[in-house]
UniProtKB/TrEMBL annotation:
Pfam families: LamB_YcsF. The gene is pxpA. This is 5-oxoprolinase subunit PxpA.
Amino acid sequence: MIRSIDINCDLGESTNPEDWARDAEIMPYISSCNIACGGHEGNQASVNASIKNAMSHNLAIGAHPSYPDKENFGRKSMSLSDHNLRKTLQQQIALVTDSCNRHGIKLNHVKPHGALYNDAAVNESLAMIFAEVVAQVSGNIKLMGLADSAMKEAANKVGIDFINEGFMDRNYQENKTLVSRTESEALHSTLEESLQQALNFAQGKPIYTPSGQLLSIKVDSICLHGDNPDAVSIAKQLQQRLKDNQIQVRSGI
C-alpha cells in the first residue's frame, strides 16, 4: 500500500501580484493551501487570485484568519471580547467562502494564523470559539490546527473534522507544543533536519525534541512555510524525499 500525506502552505499573504505569482510556483509541490483573508494580510484581490491559482493545481482550499492585526502580521496575541473575536473571524472566513462560491468550489478547511494559532492550541475557551465559528459556516468544513491540541478537542466537541498539523521546520516541546519562536531552538538549524522530520511524520514515526526525547505525534498534514525565501526549492526537495520513500503528496484531508 502506497502511503500519502497532505502538504499545506500558507499563501496569499501579500497584496502584491508578484508575490501571488511566486505562491503559484509552490503549488505544484503541495496539496492544500491556507489563504490569508484580511486579518494579518490579504484582500479581495489576493484571495481571488490565490483561489484561481489553487484551482488550477487542484489544491484543497482553506481560509487562514488571524487576530485583526496587520501591523504585527498577526504574530502578537490580542485581547478581544468574545463578540469581537467571533465577528472578525466570521468576516475573514466569509471573504474566502464567498470567493470560493463565485468560483464554484467549496472551502475545505480553516486554519488559524500566527498568535491566534498558538493561543488556540492551548486555550480551551479560545479554541471553542474558533471551532464554533467554523461549524456555523458549515458542518462540512474542517478545522486544521496543531496536532493533539485544544483545537482538536474543540473540533470534536462541536462535531467537525479535525486535521492534525505538523511542522517540518519547527522543534517541539515534550508536551507536543511548538518551541516558542523567541527561543534559539525554535527552528531546525538545517534543511536536512526539517526534511527528516517531515519524513518521520509521513511515515508515522516519532520525532525528536531538542533534548533528545522521542515524541509520537499523529499528523494528517505537514506545513511548509511559504514565506521562506527558498520555499520553492524546499518544496521540491520535500516532494522528492517523500517520493524516494514511496509517499505521495496528496490532500485526502
